[in-house]
């Protein structure tokens, strides 16, 4: 064995160096131990989040088989962990093409957000769900599968459907009330029979041609059916008078928009029916009644009803004169386009009759 010829000072220096190295190694080991604890704490926190989520969280392989799923997911679909791990996710889809579309979209984008789909419970019950998912990547950034969240919105969708059904029922009830009111007036005034319906039909056609939203078109149609409801308070002998009416009688007739408004104003329609009835005799230049409103201060609904009303009145027989004819009615609105009547509404009405051959239905209601 070779003899160590280092001097004592040299050996002491070497010992000090080794001591420092050992201390440094211990510090590093302690650091690694702390890092290992942090990693374990992080893993435990992630696991708690995974299992504690109220939404289903899942991981599937590239070929679409479940690799992991949390407790909420097991409860949502009714499977045990043993039953679902390794099962093809496509088996949970109500429509197979939904799975194919989902896979195509996530492969193209790398993610899918709030993809609405119907999935199946183990017992066959259908579930409305929202999927938010991303591609699951390996450490080398290679696609390994998909991971995401499934939110059950079945109860929410049912609430939406219940609200829709309630709205449909309410709308039918409202329409029934409106028809009953209209028929009451028309029975009392046979010369008005069908007038409100024809105005309603034409106003609806104009609104559709103007591409107004469906809900707004429906409100215009219903307002048309009862736009003259205020005439129920006008004496029948004035309404059916065969000759010219006096100024006093005309002033009484001019009250009908306000009377109609008073009848309807406290009914909570989902459309501006009462204001439309109030304004349907206003004119574009402010010469109408009852308020002398000008231009766009008049509701569009009322401007449409105004044009439809004028055309129908002139084209139909009245107690005090025979029908003037459709040609005269169209001449009237063209001559006063931009003066008495909204030019945009006039243009659409002319187009309906001249290009689309709109016709009135004079058959009994």
Describe this structure as you would to a colleague:
Helix content is 54%, strand content 12%. It is of the alpha+beta class and 365 residues long. It has 2 domains: 47-152, Beta-Lactamase (2-Layer Sandwich), CATH 3.30.450.20; 165-354, Hypothetical protein af1432 (Orthogonal Bundle). Strands 2-1-5-4-3 form a 5-stranded antiparallel sheet, with helices on both faces. β3 (111-120) and β4 (126-137) form a beta hairpin. The mean pLDDT is 85.
In sequence order, what are the helices and strands, one letter per element?
HEEHHHEEEHHHHHHHHHH
CATH class of the largest domain: Mainly Alpha
Structure summary, number of beta strands:
5
Major sheet size, sense and barrel closure: 5 strands, antiparallel
β content, as a range? 5-15%
Q: Low-confidence stretches at least 5 residues in length (pLDDT < 50)?
A: none
Q: What's the CATH H-level homologous superfamily of the largest domain?
A: Hypothetical protein af1432
Q: Please tell me the overall pLDDT.
A: 85
N→C terminal distance: 126 Å
Question: Considering DSSP H and I runs of 4 or more, what fraction of the residues is helical?
Answer: 40-55%
User: What do we call the CATH topology of the largest domain?
Assistant: Hypothetical protein af1432
Number of domains: 2
Q: Trace the largest sheet across and list its strands.
A: 2-1-5-4-3
Structural class: alpha+beta
Specify the overall morphology: elongated
The Rg value, from CA coordinates, equals 39 Å
| Count of individual helical segments | 14
Please tell me the CATH architecture of the largest domain by its name: Orthogonal Bundle
